[in-house]
Amino acid sequence: MADSASYDRVMNTLGKKRHRVDKFPCINSVSVATVDFMKSYDAYWPAAHKDPVKMAKLASSAHRKCGLDNVSLPFCMTVEAEVFGAPVNFFEDSVKWPSVKKFIAKEVSDLHFPKDLPSAGRIPVITKAIEILKKEFDGIVPVNAYIVPPFTSLSSYLVETMDFLKWLIRSPERAEEFLTNTWRTYSEIAQIYSEAGADTITFHEMGASTDNISPRQFDTFVRPYLAKIIGEVNCPTILNVCGSANLIVENMIRCGSDAVALGERSPIKEAREIAENSKQGYTIIGNVSSYEVLHKGPTTRIQEEVKKTIDAGVSIVAPGCDFWLETPTEHITAFVEAVHQQEL
Amino acid sequence: MDDDKNTKVFEKLTQAVITGDCAMAEEGANDVLNKGIPPYDAVINGLAEGMKVVGEKYEKKEYFLPEMLLSADAMYAGLNILTPHIKSEDKQKGKVILGVVEGDIHDIGKNIVKTMLTVAGYEVIDLGKDVPVAEFIEKAKSEGAKVIAMSTLMTPTLMSMKAVEEKLKDERLKGKVKTIIGGSAVSETWRANIGSDAFGADAMEAVDKIKALVSSITAAAEALKQEEKKTTDEK
Question: How many CB pairs (< 8 A) connect A and B?
Answer without folding.
Answer: 63
